[in-house]
Amino acid sequence: MSWDELLDHGDEPFALAFPPVCDVYPSLTLKATIVHACNNQEGALSDSLVDCKIARDTDTGHAQFAAYVTSKTVSHLNDAVQHFQLVLDQCLISHPDHATALTNLAYARLRGYICNDLEDIDTPTSLFREVLALRPQCHPDHPLSLYNLTEALTWRHNKKSTAADICESAKLYHELLPLCPEDTYLHSIASRGKWYESDEGIHLRRVVLELCPLDHQHRPGALDKLAQAVEARFDQHGTVDDLEMGIQLGREAMSLCPEGHTDRAYYLNNLAFSLRYRFDHQGKPNDLDEAISLYEEALRLRPVGHQYRDNSLDNLGGALIIRFNKCNDIDDITRAISLHREALTLRPPGHPCRDTTLHGLALTLDTRYDELHVIEDLNEAIDRYRESLRLKRHDHPERHLSLSNLSASLCSRFTQTRKNEDIEEAIHLCRESLVALSSLHPDRWFSYTRLQEAYLARYRILHDPADLSLAVENFRLASGHPTQGFPRRITEAIDWAHQAEVYQHESALEAYQMCFELFDSHVMTRSSIVTRREAATAFRGAQSLPVDAASCAIRRHNLRQAVELVEQGRGQQWSLASRLRTPLEDLKSACPQLAQKLLGLNKRLSHAQDSAGGADPAAADRAATEYRILTGQWDAAVAEIRDLQAFSRFLLPPSYEDLQAAARQGPVIILIASQYSCSAIIIPTSGEPRHIPLPSVTLTDLNNLKDRFARAIRHASIMGPKVPRNDLIVLLRTVWEEIMLPIVNVLEHVLKLKHGSRIWLCPTAAFTFIPLHAAHPFQTRADRSKEPCLEDLYICSYTPTLSALVRSRQMMKKRVTPSFVTIGQGQPGTGKGKALLAVDSELELVHKLVPATANRTTISGDAATRAGALKALEENTWVHLACHGKQDPTQPYNSHFVMRDEHLTLLDIMEKHIPHAEFAFLSACHTAVGDKETPDEVIHLAAGLQFSGFKSVIGTLWEVDDSVAKHVVKAFYENLFDGLKEGVMDCTKAAWALNRATHAVKTKVPLEQRMVFIHIGV
């Protein structure tokens, strides 16, 4: 390219050649340098040049360097360096152009290093340092010399991670800042490399942002560069605050670039990347959806022919792969491959970003192979990974990802071909990737994961126990890596537990424990109850963890640990929510200041939780950030409390001794339905737990049984009341013989439990959908003696978790004067369900049966609104509720009672804290049936009332027929209040009263309507 051609191209070649000159000190542009060189070529040499040879070598050096910049031909660079060196050799220190000669040579060498064509970074650094010494503060080019040295130090730090280089670079930037106009410094701060992730770099970028008020043209750029800096620091240290701050900054930057702004696509891409990154670390589905939407918009703004279309193609393709892994939609992966292939055509050999696209395409092909098992996809993925690796320098910041992903592909091929060289190379590559990463780098997780996959693959073929041990060790490292996000760590811990079970490794219990700890921490990062459930249901295989962990402990003959694990793993939604309502009486006596501090944080957290969400993503991010900050303060306060000797286990998962308090008034039976075994554990009032195997029951049997019950109940609802319920009778006989009879035998003959005693059932998994309390032998009349059923022998109650029962018992100490409210809505309005004609008569009946000593009120008709019902719940200790009840199968927190205006939802109820509440009778449909997606969370209306403060609750398992339910209601209250001592209403008699009522109405109420009612609580 001739000088005239260079000048005709405008400023573009100059910026390409010497970006530091153009960006830092616009007055000293390369254009001016080349114009000066052209004049020299024409013979009009400057007086400062001592002879024509210096001018000629300088001109040739600039020409060769410009040719290198445009063609990327290394020979041009070498020629430029050679000629600049000749000039420097001729310009002695006393020569007026000595500093310029040093600068030219240093620029060429630095540019060669940046473009991966020269390995030496020390020489340009030394040259720029020499230039700075020749240009003191009074020199007009002193700021430029400062910048040049900081640039070289930054790149040397990237290669050698030398702390001294970063410190010196930061000091030079401090010196540079007051010497440069704000717009100039704004460009200078956009230096490449890792310097900006340091605290000094972030501080200076904050200074730049302060120099750019809201209407400043460079504010979007200042926001974006600060966002990049804090996110780069997150990469190194894993501090979530940095990630959240980056997203907030990115949102503001994008908001300042509306439709039509030339840089909108750039800021769309950057914000999308940040959201995708947060999805990787926190698993919020909305983040991924929003990121894909932003990437789509950016791609539309970069049509065919746009210079940055390749970047948008790659970004969208990468996001679609992540969504495929989450949703398994094959269209996503097909489109991702197409996007990456198009991007590769735009990045031909020699393109500086070709390695990135090759890696993205390889990852996409590898993912499709995992789904469709087409070997051609795997072989191409391996070839693309190798090509990408060849293009990456050894100090490339993302080289480790290519190493670990190539390792995974080789491991996959090894399982197909069993070629030993593939697995050996896979293990070597993973080890190499670990060497390149700091101990806290989040991406070490990938290397640990790939290593465990490789060792496990080799173990399956060669059966060397050492490989299994190495695989487990890498499971342990990946699950426990502190700076990787919870979703990936949880996925790895679940896989660890599964593989340990498959190969009967002793680490299985440790793996389950890790799962529960990670789930607990992950769910607590969510600022609302609904998003906590989303977090808990997002992991494949997680649903069965509590029962599988308990089964594992049982098989290890550790029943106490089985009880602890099943309690820790199930009911997490209630456990986490109840932390904010922990009684603090004991703590108030020991340390009132700490108790008050925690109480204040509890209130602020509850408020933050209630205000989280909304349609505005930015507002949701701010709420989540506030919640996270408060959570950190709450954790610190709890840690301070645990330092007190008497509170060392404050709010930690309960021990067996803590949980045994649930059996204070009678044994608690945990029924465990695991894929590995089905059994029961009886927790007695004192002493060791008892294990009852259920050898004739499998998880498949239980799932079939619950489905058969559902069909039988539906069939019974359309039958007349006098038609025999033969199908139900057969099912209840099965429950008796295969499940409850082995338990009853232990209760009677081993524990010597008297007939008529209280027992509590705590079902898990598939057991939660089976009416265990109604188990019955149903012997024929030909039998000489009648065998009693379960309800003949014992008074059965349920409890969602052991902790819930313990908590209800503790709160029973707070007894107050009873007040009784009956709430009914028989005319719910258009579209809300059929009219319930018996509601008003049921309310009237209950009102009459309640003792006159209680303060009695009734709310019905137009007064039975959402607000009216909530107020009545808060103001009364005893409640009878008759209306439609509906369980939401997709979002159980939206399960509700149907009122005249709006639904009274489970969320509405959970937000209320009614510590003096005692009893609730829910005469409505589906109030005690759980969530099919997470059965062990027991998320239903009855549990919500218990959580809010009601110690004793009667709920329903399926649809209630209001025309016959009133017979059960009448018999229940008659028994409950029969012989009542004046002024005393005892909710602990509710289970007994329900037992008596179901016996009393056998001739009036069909079987399915007698067994629909269950008792929960004390």
Automatic annotation (TrEMBL):
Coiled coil stretches, renumbered: none
InterPro entries: CHAT_dom (IPR024983), TPR-like_helical_dom_sf (IPR011990)
Domain CHAT: 733-980
Name this protein carries in UniProt: CHAT domain-containing protein
